[in-house]
Design a protein that fits this description.
This protein has 332 residues and is of the alpha/beta class. 30% of the residues lie in helices and 27% in strands.
Length: 332
């Protein structure tokens, strides 16, 4: 008889009322794939919080095991790319949305979705980074491809206390940028400065409807908030600057005008982490090895166990989680 493992299963009844249960599953229950992985670590991203709470329609296949990130060891493989014993990492690809994800002791996945776990990181460390930190790295890379350099001026980071924001601050500071952190939690100013922020501004400066064009304040931005915040960041970006947009914590609307684009040549760079090609994923994780200080990663990471996932998922959607959360899945 095959070994069972625990999993978080999100279901919906005929009236579309969502429920969340802890269940026991076996390998035979898993969805199709050519690589089976023993899940050793995962994380709780904002998207995971939305999936578990149902506050946004993240889940598109029912029932669903949420969890968009995982790290672990291959136990079975029908792919020539991986063999049993290999340490692997997964971010995105619809896992936890359309394909059963990380909040289970085992996962069956497609080899194309996996990359080797960087030797420099443990499973818990890469999950301390997770999709949020990997997305932050993609944002920095997007700004660099546009030609943004530390000498061009400050970079504003919105949602600074969140997963994307905190990792972005640490990376940008290490690369020599003057970082302006926008946060709704001014009591966290010392924490943000320890990560490398040179200035702290209240998110209220950006979160309300603003002018089509404002005073030029920064050369670039990393935005995980969207809505009025992104519109105001664009309106205050210097001539020729760029903003990397990757999130919608405030909303998915963009109540902006074309003024920053046609009068200042500002560029809006969309950053997607879910379907990013493997070459870009490998580049991002290689950069994280060199450009993210492990001490700062440890400072922004809280480690929890499987039993704490649901509570943490609710807290993250309420803005009560600082930095990153890694989940130790050993024994799940």
């Amino acid at each position: 008889m095959s070994e069972t493992f625990r999993a978080i299963l999100v279901s919906r009844d005929e009236e579309k009322k969502q429920s969340v249960d802890i269940v026991d599953l076996g390998e035979a229950d898993l969805m199709e794939g050519d690589v089976t992985v023993k899940v050793e670590a995962t994380t709780v991203n904002y998207k995971d919080g939305l999936a578990i709470t149902g506050k946004s329609p993240v889940v598109r296949h029912w029932p669903m095991v949420p969890g968009v990130d995982l790290a672990g060891t291959v136990t079975k493989s029908e792919s020539g790319e991986f063999k049993p014993g290999d340490k692997v990492l997964l971010n995105g690809w619809g896992v936890g949305e359309t394909h059963w994800g990380a909040y289970a002791g085992m996962a069956r996945l497609k080899a194309d979705w996996l990359i080797p776990l960087p030797r420099e990181f443990t499973p818990l460390e890469v999950m301390g980074i997770g999709t949020a930190g990997y997305t932050a790295m993609l944002c920095v890379m997007a700004l660099e491809r546009h030609g943004v350099t530390p000498g061009d001026g400050p970079v504003v980071v919105t949602g600074a206390n969140g997963g994307v924001g905190s990792v972005a601050i640490a990376i940008l500071a290490k690369l020599g940028y003057h970082v302006i952190a926008s946060t709704g939690r001014p009591n966290e100013a010392d924490f943000l400065k320890e990560l490398g922020a040179a200035e702290i501004i209240d998110r209220a400066e950006l979160s309300e409807p603003g002018r089509p064009l404002g005073k030029e304040r920064w050369a670039a931005g990393v935005d995980a908030v969207g809505s009025h915040t992104l519109a105001n960041v664009l309106a205050q970006t210097k001539y020729g600057g760029a903003v990397a947009a990757c999130g919608l914590a405030q909303g998915f609307d963009l109540p902006a005008t074309v003024m920053p684009f046609i009068l200042r040549g500002v560029a809006l760079l969309g950053v997607d982490s879910v379907m990013a090609p493997k070459a870009r994923r490998l580049e991002a994780w290689s950069r994280l090895v060199t450009d993210l200080d492990k001490g700062k990663l440890a400072a922004i990471t809280t480690t929890i166990g499987f039993d704490d996932i649901v509570e943490t998922a609710t807290a993250i959607t309420e803005g009560k989680v600082r930095g990153r959360v890694a989940v130790d899945m050993i024994g799940a």
